[in-house]
Design goal:
Blueprint (H helix, E strand, L loop, with lengths): L3 E4 L7 E6 L4 E6 L4 H17 L7 E5 L4 E5 L6 H6 L6 H14 L6 E3 L5 E3 L5 H8 L1 H10 L2 H20 L5 E5 L8 E4 L2 E4 L6 E4 L2 H7 L8 H13 L6 H28 L10 H12 L6 H10 L6
Helix pairs in contact: 4-6, 4-9, 5-9, 6-11, 7-9, 9-10
Amino acid sequence: MKNIKEIRGDASFRKFFRKKNKNYTSIIIYSKKEKNKNLLIYDAVNKILNKNKILAPTLYNQNYLKNYLEVKDFGDNTILNILQKKKNIDLSFFKKIIRTLNKIQLIKDRSIKNFKKKNYTIPEYNSKILIEEALLFCDWYAKRNLSNKYRNRFVKNFKKIVKDLTLNLKLKNNVFVHRDFHISNLMLVKDKIGIIDSQDALIGNKAYDLASLIDDVRFQTSETFKNEIYRLYIKKQKKLDKHKFKNDFEILSVLRNLKIIGIFTRLAVRDGKKKYLKLIPYAWTLINIRINKNKVFLNLYKLLKQNFRKKIK
């Protein structure tokens, strides 16, 4: 069809199309695989965000049997695209993003009716899920980079250490967590921040989305800049236990980047999306930044140093 054009997708099983209507454009999201999450849950979470005056794509039309949704078009201005064109990073965007994150973390809604008129409740981001995600590092990256002789022992020790790290988290799982809150999923929409890719949202730790934003594998920034964004967030948090928050921020950042290394290896090996491999070195850099600053990582540091000597400084 002339009025429908495929546009660049992401790492998921979805396909995206821009549709030209008479007076506006819209986005068609097609997902035959994992369509409950990619269509039904995606729209339900967007409804919660919009209900709380946070900009997310509204639903225009859906045909679940034919595997698609039609939603509002936010354009192509991701914050990542904007910043990549600038010589210097504009802090004003991050001030807007932090304000948006603060609003997200005030959301009290946990349930909403989806477009099938059934109730959807956002699940908890519990330690079981965190551990399973971190183990993707073993399933894909360690499997390809360690011999059988070393891998079984590594996996056994890694599991124990990751479990211990989750037990060391101090804050409650009591805020809305987007779970992929980085500048590829944040868009500039008429001077406001719009949020996409929200289908994986859970109720979890307050530090998680900030860790996603600051330690973003797709966008390299200096430690000085990372600290500046961290301070921007902390400044607005009057009742926050800063020591507990910093502890959780560092643990979640490391666990998240171990997961990302596993996922990006899987995308390359299983799905033939080899472009993600070039992001893995910076994921290791991010792990190095955090792993040396908190003694809670001592056992993980030793294990990674022993098995991935060239990756750990």
